[in-house]
């Protein structure tokens, strides 16, 4: 049986004796996060995963979905689809996961969010529109379908609506298995019931398997589930049908009072976290509850063999039904299937480009704030270095202006970090759900950034070039734009690389700021290459993108310009024009130790450095995916 293609029909999802323990440190004892947890589900069934906070619900969902689990732990047990061990790629193909925390793109509307996920999942255009509208409607988001999710600067939909949108954007791809971590958190009881009813309806209609961790459902919500697993401290207290819960706990000696919410009663029974204390009576309560919990663990453990035989009976029945499931393997998720990998990637890049384009138009933080900032910077620079003439006293200020524009422009690429991290967190979620990989993500990110970075370079150059009075030449102006553009692309590529190393705002900000400080220091302006010590000269000086930008700008400005010496014909730099009381700009370049103007080579090196940063980011993301 081929379990590695998308055409696998999930007939049974089963997990057996899942145990996970971690070593917290050298001195700490081994901690058991999950202990022999088992269960199984058939298409159309919806299971609630319940237990006190910290009982291991998210950990179990992560293991079942082949998501990240503690690397310093030992994991045992099996996760099977149709009796075959699952692989990460198979689970990616057949399942979707709605995480406990929402990670949505703030500048997209509700409809766009669902629609882009449907496109990335390959839902054909012919019925995508209808499917998207139906999914939005069924999650009660119809009135908000045109409203933006919201960014830190722009208020959007509410927290509960975001939760429902996260569910909608995963349900739209109609996965065979849907993992939901706390889908009802932030929802009131009516909305919770609506959402779970809708999930149950879709699960039945689409033969979907749903595993859903949930806190304190009301009785009516609890009754909607087919099955339930109660965990406490990572161990099973009960797993089976919802209908049998009352009987089981009654037979175990813990009868659930009539008119009592069964799930609430059981959760209270198995939650001992808040009974801990130092006062004598609290200790008693804790001990009492621990005894009850241990008793429930034991009773459940003793019941296991009979469950195993029940499972075998089920299997037997299926075989007698003609074993139809074994042959019927072709489940085709409604998607466009590209045989050619290249075409598939191109299609994904195209969709991601459209998504980023919307974001770039609407997200103030991503682009507009940066444009205003760069414009402000250009005006500030233009007014400080205002209309400098050809006097030799202005040679140093011109050099400073070139250094400042190149170095500060790169430094300010840190402003892109928040927008990139938002994209990164939706990439992580989408990648884990099998929608697209690091190549499509980074390529679309690169392409969408180019016109924007070019626009910034142009705006900045128009203001500063003429206000500062750089060399009067159209070619000189366009070279200035080119160096700034390459500078910005390299700076942004480096910023993205830093975010890929540590996808955390404070850490990536610190790393990027540090790296920019380093490139400024060793670029040959603050300390000329003639003086720079051998360590820095033979290492970082050669891979400093700011150095090539600064050199390029220096040659562009000084190689064809002539300056006046002072009124007594004293010249700061000695050049062949000294007899005319002038300084040839080349003398300034020689003084800094520069040889020839190798603009092609330097631009080439910058492109290579950009490529290396992008490749580094790709490798990091690939390793992590
Ligand atoms: N990477 C990790 N390293 C160490 N301990 C961990 C790790 N991940 C989870 N844990 C521990 O495992 C236990 C279960 O965590 P988990 O997040 O699965 O709980 P939960 O049932 O989902 O809780 P909640 O209802 O609050 O979301 C907790 O005690 C948690 O501290
Ligand atoms: Mg959790």
UniProtKB/TrEMBL annotation:
Source domain of life: Eukaryota
Cellular localisation: Membrane
Domain ABC transporter: 13-258
GO MF annotation list: ABC-type transporter activity; ATP binding; ATP hydrolysis activity
Keywords: ATP-binding, Membrane, Nucleotide-binding, Transmembrane, Transmembrane helix, Transport
Cited Pfam families: ABC2_membrane, ABC2_membrane_7, ABC_tran
Membrane topology recorded in Swiss-Prot or TrEMBL: Multi-pass membrane protein
Name this polypeptide is given: Piso0_005908 protein
Organism: Pichia sorbitophila (strain ATCC MYA-4447 / BCRC 22081 / CBS 7064 / NBRC 10061 / NRRL Y-12695) (Hybrid yeast)
